């Protein structure tokens, strides 16, 4: 029986996600699948549950396989962690990486992982481990070559990237928290805790900036068996004591018939319980206004009875022109109408925004707080526009990507692309100014989230200072930004000259890399004994 250890490290840089203790659904799913369908001894170490995970402790377990998730915020930590683990183990350990960062940047993940499972790994992980269990590499190559999304090196030393295959496949798993040390009674140890829950996969829309096409490999939308969803709710509550669930679907309610049946089953399953679950769901505003997929009054009432309390709306921008460019199919009037209807049914509205898109100005960013108050949001999440591989914007805006900006600060709040109507550091500051303005309101919940945002802002100070250094030493001297009537604006023609010229780009990118490396050292990002602030190269 082989030992399999899955490791989820806690990001060093503060974020909203880090403040709410919730294991990632991906590794929890993979751990549950391996525990059920293989004979291996499986353990998922979620750092917030168990405390600091030390490579020495993993080495003493002598695992044959170590699986790590691929968040950009923990990519450097993970690499340093695995490097130290390999130095401590007497026999080679096979490292498998997956998740968002590994899917988007498989070459980076391959610097520390023997195998990278791109896109959703629940379909392919058991096939991978069963193939590796055979140990005959000559025979393995033939089987490894047909595992969807696998990035690996064959026996001839050639790098292979398998095609994605058909991603719209049945979702087939059930959570098993018994393989997660520290999960039992977790609710009593953390003030803010949630559990992830999946009811569907994919999306029916293609917003230009969204990463879901790149992360899932192909388009499509599929729902999960209702009995499995109800199992995960019941098992999660009974095992951890946590009653708050974040439904991690890209689009909740994309299949109205399924949604109605699911919610009815949830009501029936928990109506006799004193303690019932509550849910946060991610939706589009037009699901509450007009169109073929609009929620009826009866369905909204059912959502309330089932425990749906918070609706997270992807508003993205308060600038109408940006919404058109993003292919949102929405406008501010639609957002106002959706908010009015949601309030009528007693839902809390949490709005997410993407700042710095297109020709947005500082005032556009700062207007987010006012608009959010106008439509009665209880919370907002303010992110920076980012360009991710596979997104529709990736081709036309790739030159705007700041080189080496995928650092431990890349948790959504980090400015990683060059805004057209302001300097990057100004956008970075405006993101937190906006959040501070919104949460500076009466109420304990707002004050709590306001404190979290202030903590995030303090943690981002090295990154903001790096952006200022890059502006001072790179962007302004190279005339990539020029003085305009209302501040600095991006000279896109000059930027393209720089990115298209090998020598200019090398000078441009190397100076940027050095600034970010200094920011990482200032934030003391690393793992104990591994040397914080190791080079990004």
Entry summary:
The protein has 537 residues and is α/β, with parallel strands linked by helices.
Description:
By secondary structure, the protein is an alpha/beta fold. It has 22 helices and 17 strands. The chain has helices spanning 16-19, 25-37, 47-50, 55-61, 75-88, 100-104, 106-109, 125-133, 137-144, 212-216, 226-240, 256-270, 297-306, 320-325, 332-344, 362-374, 393-396, 424-439, 444-459, 461-475, 492-500, 502-522; strands at residues 3-8, 41-46, 65-69, 94-98, 115-117, 150-153, 159-161, 195-197, 200-203, 220-223, 244-247, 278-283, 308-316, 348-355, 379-384, 481-484, 487-490. It has a seven-stranded mixed β-sheet. The protein has a six-stranded parallel β-sheet with strand order 8-11-12-13-14-15. A two-stranded antiparallel ribbon has the order 9-10. The two termini are 37 Å apart.
Features:
single chain, 537 residues, alpha/beta, six-stranded parallel sheet, 16% strand
| Low-confidence runs of at least 5 consecutive residues | 526-537
How far is it from the N-terminal to the C-terminal residue, by CA?
37 Å
Shape: globular
Taken as a percent bin, the fraction of beta residues is 15-25%
Strands across the major sheet, in which order?
2-1-3-4-5-6-7
Helical stretch count?
22
Query: What's the total count of β strands?
Result: 17
Largest sheet: 7 strands, mixed
C-alpha Rg (nearest Å) = 23 Å
